[in-house]
Amino acid sequence: MVVMVSQVGVAQQTSHFVNTVNGVTTGECAYINGQGEPIKIKFRQTPNGHVTAEANHPSVHNAVAELDVCKEAVNTVSHNTQQNIHQTQEQIARQHQQLQEQIRRQQEAIFNQRVFLPVFPTGPPNFP
Predict the structure, then answer these.
(1) Residue 35 confidence (pLDDT)
(2) What is the pLDDT of residue 112?
(3) Measured between alpha carbons, how far is 70 from 3 in angstroms, rounded to an integer?
(4) Alpha-carbon gap, residue 64 to 41, rounded angstroms
(5) What is the distance between the alpha carbons of residues 110 and 102, in angstroms, rounded to a whole number?
(6) What's 4-20 look like in SS3?
(7) What local confidence, expressed as pLDDT, does residue 10 receive?
(8) Residue 70 class from Cβ within 10 Å (0-12 exposed, 13-18 middle, 19+ buried)?
(9) Cα(77)–Cα(30) distance, rounded to whole angstroms?
(10) Reading across the β-sheet that carries 38-45, which strands appear in turn?
(11) Residues 6+ apart with CB under 8 A from 57
């Protein structure tokens, strides 16, 4: 999952990749921190819940704790993205409905128009 958010102090870009084999989960969580630095944390979690992690940035002193922060950022950004998608879908549906109504009114106006063509005599006028 890769998602973007632009709030200061919150992950600007996050990703979370996980693979589980025989109950052992391995993966990585990466983001760009508030200072614009890319942080990547690789982790391994055993079936009993023991987690080991390492980070690629010297500012990260506790990779396991930072992993929790990264996962929370991924969840927050994912939730916000889902809300934005839902709002956009609702807006598109409203616009679609408005366009359909405009088309219906235009078709109705065209159908209700009366075209009056001049009537021309078919032959010479009748003289008394």
Answers:
(1) 83
(2) 80
(3) 12
(4) 8
(5) 12
(6) ECCCCCCCCEEEEEEEE
(7) 45
(8) buried
(9) 13
(10) 2-4, 13-21, 24-32, 38-45, 51-55
(11) 37, 38, 39, 40
Q: Which residues contact 37 (CB under 8 A, 6 or more apart)?
A: 57, 59
CA distances from 90 to 83, 86, 94 (A): 11, 6, 6
3-state DSSP assignment of residue 96: helix
Q: Where are the alpha helices (DSSP H) in the chain?
A: 63-112
How is the chain split into domains, by residue range? 2-112
Per-residue pLDDT of the chain (128 residues; tens, 9 = 90+): 343 333 334 444 556 667 778 888 888 888 887 788 888 899 999 999 899 999 998 889 999 999 988 888 888 888 899 999 999 999 999 999 999 999 999 988 888 876 666 666 666 666 56
Residue 66: CB partners within 8 Å, gap ≥ 6? Answer: 39, 41, 53, 55, 60
d(CA 128, CA 123): 15
Under a CB-based contact definition with an 8 Å cutoff, are residues 3 and 16 in contact? no
- Torsions phi, psi of 127, nearest 5? -100, 145
